[in-house]
Each structure stands twice: as C-alpha cells, then as structure tokens.
Specification:
alpha+beta; 4 helices; Aminopeptidase; 151 residues; binds coenzyme A
Length: 151
C-alpha cells in the first residue's frame, strides 16, 4: 500500500501492544510475546518507537543503548505498508535516539535469508561485521551481525 509521508514516529506505550503483537506475529517465525514487550517498556536501557499513521500503529522498532553501543532489538512494518519507506524512516529515528544517548556505533543481527531487511540495512550504511552460528532456534539459521559507526 502506498502512503504519503504523513506518518508520525513516537514512543511506544502500553496502549500500542495489541497492534504490535499482531504485526509481530505476521512478521516473525519466532515472535516475541506480549510479556516481553511489556517488560521492554520497563527496561531502562531500551527505547521503543512506533510509527503512527492516521491513528494506527503500522510499524515499530527498538534499540538498547548501553554505554557507547546501540543494539537494534526489533524492527517490523505491517505487511500492508512495506516498501513505502516506513522501515527506513523508523531506522533513522532509532539512530537519532542512539546518537542522543551518545552511542558511537549500532549493532544488529539479521538472517542471511531476509533480503528486504538486508537491503534496508545495507542501504543505510550497515556493514557485515560477523556471523553468529546457528543463532535462530527455529531453523538453526546463522545471524549476520551488522554494524554502523555513528558520526
Ligand atoms: C525489513 C522491513 C522492516 C523493511 O521495512 P520497509 O518499510 O518495507 O522498508 P523501506 O520501504 O523503508 O525500504 C528500505 C529499503 O529496503 C529496500 N527493500 C525493502 N523491501 C525490499 C524487498 N522486499 N526486496 C528488496 N529490497 C527491499 C527498499 O528498496 C529500500 O531501499 P531504497 O531506500 O534504496 O529504496 C520489513 O520488510 C519488515 O517488517 N519485514 C519483516 C520483519 C523483519 O524482517 N524485520 C527485520 C528483522 S532483522
């Protein structure tokens, strides 16, 4: 679905959890639980954002910032709204949060089979920096570790 750029990125709240769980279940083979997200909202190191489009949550993502390192935990866009620049806009906001909290680099893990996520991250300057063997427990797939230095 094509949308104009009239969406808003804001902090996640408990009110958003139902929408997040729906998108999470449609996006991941190992979805996080409702309890995980509630716990994350109380995690001092975690920063979660949602993309709000005309009152609906259409995407969300999170980053932990511990000292100089940011670690992207999750990024997902409602399947109906993919490929319209939403994921890119959300990642830019997560990077802004990381910079604000004085992180100097961001790290994330991604499946080698996840072509859309790889395209998004590579397009934003993330570089392959390692491999975690058998990281994903559903199919034992490795994780590519990607890193971006923040200037
Ligand atoms: C990965 C994901 C977040 C991308 O979000 P999105 O809103 O569709 O991405 P964008 O529209 O902002 O696209 C960003 C870039 O990725 C590219 N891209 C997006 N989907 C793509 C696809 N299916 N194939 C190839 N490239 C793709 C776009 O071309 C764009 O590049 P450009 O800026 O040079 O035009 C989304 O597909 C998603 O939620 N996937 C399921 C959950 C997931 O895998 N999350 C990541 C876990 S590591």
């Amino acid at each position: 679905m094509l949308i104009n750029q009239d969406f808003m990125v804001r902090k996640m709240t408990l009110m958003d959890i139902d929408a997040i769980i729906r998108i999470e279940n449609e996006s991941f083979t190992l979805p996080w639980s409702r309890e995980s997200y509630i716990g994350e909202l109380n995690n001092h190191f975690a920063n979660y954002l949602v993309v709000d489009y005309e009152g609906d949550v259409i995407a969300y993502g999170g980053i932990w910032v511990v000292f100089e390192e940011g670690h992207i935990t999750n990024v997902a866009v409602d399947p109906e709204y993919r490929n319209a620049g939403v994921g890119h806009a959300l990642m830019e906001e997560l990077e802004r949060v990381a910079r604000q909290k004085k992180a100097t680099r961001i790290l994330l893990e991604v499946r080698p089979s996840n072509m859309s996520a790889l395209a998004l991250y590579r397009g934003m300057g993330y570089l392959d920096s390692g491999l975690r063997k058998g990281y994903y427990s559903d199919n034992n797939e490795d994780a590519i570790v990607m890193t971006k230095l923040l200037f």
